[in-house]
Description:
With 242 residues, this protein is mostly beta strands. It contains 3 helices and 12 strands. The radius of gyration is 24 Å and the shape is elongated.
Amino acid sequence: MKRCLLLLAVLSTACCYGQQYSREITCGTDTVTGYSFYEPYPAFACTKVSGFGIRAEIGVSGYAYNNKTKQWLGNHFGGSLALAVAYKNFTIGFRFKPWTIRPKTDLAFGSDTLTPSAELNPIKLDYYVGYSIDLKHNISVEPYIGWTSSVFEVINEKDLHRSYDIQTANGLIAGVTLNKYFRISEFQFFSVFISTGYATTGFSKTNSRLGNGYYEGTFGIAYKGFYRMHFLRRADGSKKYH
Length: 242
């Protein structure tokens, strides 16, 4: 963990050149005919990148729990899917992280005891805001902060002849993602990323025998792209767009 933070600190001192793309208006040199209220006028065909875009990612996450929680869940891996709306360097997103495990020990929830024969989904749902700090060589450091919920679903209740109502555990989550971007086209990028973070999730409110918090690390791939806008600019330089 300390080595990862040191590496990110060194990278953050570099000049900013990552995932560069032009946000200026680009126009062709040949005139075309535009129409305003059915009146023709000479114009240039122009394009400009929108400030808005999307980021989608898929990866594998690993979780290291507090010792008390570890005795019940054990440290484990799981899938991670994410979708975010990007606005320039900002992102607002959602992560869905499902997996199926078997508990390590018995644990009572109300009048029912969950045993190691249960197939448990400790689903994690993250809502986060991030910011991209662009570096040289299309590398980007993206710190994020948000809210996470751990939802527990027993998928073989019928086989166990029991019904479980396990309280959702919530908490803050914060971390940083390191991306290596590869350009697909002018405003679209593919990235390989690693991410590390910590969540304050209060598992002890779900059951007093559990602890709070966990570390997570994710490795995966992502797509990030921005919408290209097309419009006409009058050839007379009046800066009227259509």
